[in-house]
Design goal:
The protein is an alpha/beta fold. The chain has a single domain, classed as Response regulator (Rossmann fold). 49% of the residues lie in helices and 17% in strands. The chain has a five-stranded parallel β-sheet with strand order 2-1-3-4-5, with helices on both faces. Helix 2 runs parallel beside helix 3. It is globular and about 45 Å long. It starts with 8 loop residues before the first strand and ends with a helix. The mean pLDDT is 93.
Length: 141
């Protein structure tokens, strides 16, 4: 588990008010700064403005679904290293595979527990730190 979540910016994109509020409450209590969006379309400007450290995105949403949103994030040079966690009420192999194809870093099944949420968050933050170290070392060569 990470020592502190203070100062970590998390975006939660979900059309379910319950899921957004649950994630926001759990993450805020842990010290994270949480930005929410109701769908992928709503999230795009907010991502550019807030520069989140980690993005949680629901798969099934109106206008711009989670797969499309993830693909747009990962195809953007500025955000391609930002971890994206897909949220879904389906725990199917197909959904997980499709998420990986569009660049998702992790997959979390809804409804999720506090333990599951923070386990995934710890995992993506650890991997993000490793990537940042590797990129820094590569640029120094």
């Amino acid at each position: 588990m990470v020592d502190s979540y203070e100062g970590i910016k998390i975006m939660v994109i979900d059309d379910s008010n319950t899921i957004r509020r649950t994630a926001e409450t759990l993450l805020s209590k842990a010290g994270c700064e949480v930005i929410t969006a109701v769908d992928g379309f709503d999230s795009l400007a907010k991502i550019a403005d807030s520069l989140p450290d980690v993005i949680f995105v629901d798969i099934m949403m109106p206008r711009l679904d989670g797969y499309q949103t993830c693909a747009l994030i990962k195809n953007n040079e500025q955000f391609k290293q930002t971890p994206v966690v897909m949220l879904s009420s389906k725990d199917g192999l197909f959904d997980k595979a499709k998420g990986r194809i569009v660049g998702a870093d992790e997959y979390l099944t809804k409804p999720f527990s506090k333990t599951e949420l923070f386990a995934v968050l710890d995992d993506v933050l650890a991997r993000k730190a490793e990537v940042e170290v590797a990129l820094r070392e590569a640029s120094e060569v």
